[in-house]
Structures
1.
Amino acid sequence: MLAAFVSSGGNMGQAKQRGTIEQRIAQAQAKIEATRPEKLVCNGCGADVTTIHPVSTRGLTGVESIWLGQCDCGQTTFAASGKPEAVQAFFDALGSDTELTLGSQSRDGSQHETS
Ligand SMILES: [Zn+2]
């Protein structure tokens, strides 16, 4: 994947330009980290999954963040936040392609149900 950054305003300072991009990336990551669930509840065995990784939402309009948790039992649990219809569309797309069990839970994992 090739990413192109276009600067405007005649700022030719390479180091400063790189810093700006790094700041933007850091801000974007901080925004994503703010939505990180405390834990995911495994849809397979109900165990707490605390090893959670962010997944790119590139191309998924309306989806703020997607989290993937890999349980010790082998099940993969996804959590997504954003506009409800966009999140639903994401899970619909997942469900048609895989044999994942999908569920919903609150951010702290206290309320959990599988669909
Ligand atoms: Zn499990």
Note: Residues 42, 44-45, 47, 71, 73, 75 surround zinc ion (CB under 6 Å).
2.
Amino acid sequence: MFYGTWFRYDNKDSGYRDRRKCIVDQFNTRQVVAIDEEEPPLTRGDVLSSTSSNDLQTSWNRVVPRSHNSASMNKTKQFRKAFFPDATNQEWNDWHWQLSHRITTLEQITRYIDLTLEERQALELSVTQFPFSVTPYYLSLINLQDQNSALRKTVIPSIRESFTCEGESDDPLHEENTSPVPGIVHRYPDRVLFLTTSFCSVYCRYCTRSRLVGGHSEALEKHWKEAIEYIRNTPVIRDVVISGGDPLTLSDERIEYLLTEIFSIPHIEMVRIGTKVPVVLPQRITPQLLKILKRFKPLYLSVHCTHPDEITEESAKAFNNLADAGVVMGSQSVLLKGVNDSVETLTELYHQLLKVRVKPYYLFQCDPISGSAHFRTTVAKGKELIHGLRGFTSGYAIPQYVIDTPGGGGKVPILPEYEVGHDAGNLYLRNYEGRVFAYPDRAEEGTEN
Ligand code: SF4
């Protein structure tokens, strides 16, 4: 960000308005606008992106066309017909059936997909301790013939996971260092992360907690009482994030127990559940579960969503039922190279989520977890994507782009450069079209900021 004293003029100058217009016009033309000798010249090219234009129509042409169609509905039907012709509707729609038919081995997956060399090597050599698992439902969303299918990259292991690059580690966020008792991560003052299970129905190959997920629930469940006691004895905590693994893979009884215990603590004001279940195992959102969730308020769901292909008839039904039960939902997505790193894909994902009452909440820069280099984009790419969203779609469709800082520093928001400079009287802001406007940012005379 460039801040400098570029313009010298007196606010009381009678020609102030004209001058301000002149200055803004200078940003919006190709003239050099630097005035102060101490600062280097600033050209329009410095402050405006290559996509800038004064022509509204040009900007509007960049609106992403709505292209999501009903293909995903048919994909699942065709998949069932080809691979599970004997499964009844009742079985297919039963989350226990989905879990017991998960695809977890090389032999099983080769029934459905011709693996690439990199995928086969990963599964043959079991190069990673991080297990492989995908539900039949989620596999049905993948275009099996397409080696570049976005969802395929997120769940089918690749040998590239075994290459650890500089700067990567198994616990880049140093969660282990901010864990006062097993199962609790207490990084921020007023809220904690409660890791309740290490089980997920589908394992995402870029998972930040791959060091601890993939085991059995019991491993973390045995610490629940101690974790709840910690929350009870720490009055500064007002917000609990129940995470894992995926907590919605726990039984109804276990979920009810956790929510009852946590909501019974007087200083707890809200509870959040982090989950990917509505998109990988939407069958889990049963009437019984909804009845339990409905009893606890305020309850928020942070849903891990990656790509518009995840928003199907089934997941839409799950989301709508959750919303009807009073659950407030936000999405969390990880920015992934070759999966969702385009304005078109993100726009479509966020539009689809809003339609099913999920507010796009966070877009995470991919954490430097060991073996994740093939998933990571540059931060510049992330900024470019946010720049491509802001102004071109509803503000509600735009998540906060953040980096969870390595070393346990917490989340830091990252923004494209909208503030292009300031002087004694104005802050200069670049809008979504690349045009620069002045905001009168000055304290009243005789007052301090
Ligand atoms: S659902 Fe979450 S916890 Fe489970 S593997 Fe994916 S990212 Fe990790």
Note: Residues 73-162 form one domain.
3.
Amino acid sequence: MKNLISGWVWIPAVFLILVGTTEYFIDSGDNFAFIEYPILQLVLLVCLLFLIALNIVLASIKNIMFQSLSEEAKEKYLAAREERLKKFDWKVILRKVNDAKPISEERDIELDHNYDGIKELDNKLPPWWLYSFYATIVFAAGYMFYFHILDGDNQAMEYEKEMIAAQLAVEEYKKNAPDLVDAENVTLLTEAEDLQKGAAIFQNNCIACHAADAGGGIGPNLTDNYWILGGGIKNVFHTVSEGGRAGKGMIAWKSTLKPTEIQQVSSYIISLEGSEPANPKEAEGDLWTE
Ligand code: HEC
């Protein structure tokens, strides 16, 4: 079993490295490269088959050579391999990466410093530490080259770029979504087209209480310049959107009408100021001046 694993384990390892390399070098946006370019799947598959075939060929050559050995040589070979597999024992590996002298042999590396009984050992640097250190040097060289010689983007620069991209995305979004009007930024519409749409919305939703000519009924007269809840486009927009005082009967329309529609109907109402409705309700609220 051990044999089987050690004979095949390199294939997925090499294959993964291969896949990783293609992902690294082929620019495929947010997707995996092999999804973006299906031909790559074929290439990778061929590579995998090649690796498997190679392994089978190597294994049979090994087998033929083994069979051609004399009994004595076979035994020697098996013993040597047993020895080799011991290298994969984790205790052996651990000893290797630390390369420390066992306590029983420490006498050999003792230095002749002696400070009040505290002695010093001339230990080797542990290989795991030493090679990690070398790796940082290599990394630093790459880092230095990329950021200071090739002028790669630093964090501040990356931030700037992302902010610019986001800004563009927001503008793009606003272009396609004009429904971002609210009581703060709403403006009075005066185009005939908008006022017509406002009139239609008014006829469909509001005349039961405000009368078809907005002269008032259950709700107040909307054509005079007296306002209970404040005049001007911002206040009117706010009233239509959020509703009147509790219990008076004027509901919040923001769940029924879109912001632009509220803007249109509010503009329409304001455009009615001074019109003379048939049965005007007497003025309520305060005289509004801008
Ligand atoms: C169910 C009856 C009813 C309907 C329908 C109705 N309103 Fe009202 N509206 C009222 C009442 C009642 C008030 C007074 C609210 C208050 O006193 O707080 C009012 C107040 C208002 C005011 C504020 C008037 C002021 O003097 O400040 C505006 C503007 C208004 N309505 C617009 C509309 C619009 C636009 C629609 C249709 C989308 C509409 N209303 C639909 C009953 C209604």
Note: The CA atoms of residues 242 and 252 lie 4 Å apart.
